[in-house]
Amino acid sequence: MDPGPDDVLLAGFLPVALLGPLLGLTTLAPAVNHLAPARTAPEELVGPLLRHRASIVLASPPSSP
User: Fold this and answer.
1) Mean pLDDT, to the nearest integer, of 39-60?
2) CA–CA dist 5, 27 (Å, integer)
3) pTM: predicted TM-score of the whole model, two decimal places
4) CA angle 14-11-29, nearest 5°?
5) In angstroms, rounded to a whole number, what is the distance separating the alpha carbons of residues 33 and 43?
6) pLDDT value at position 46?
């Protein structure tokens, strides 16, 4: 990963949301259930991804529903 100033990070995992600003990236923090990521509705991720043209997506592995 070689992020540049035009990249937009979609942070689907809370600790990653802190990483974006440290790298100088515009960072999106969508509405994710961080205790049970597998229960997050797909539109909660896809909507912001498309709307803000995210070029980098980092998220946690899903937990059991």
Assistant:
1) 90
2) 11
3) 0.80
4) 80
5) 13
6) 93
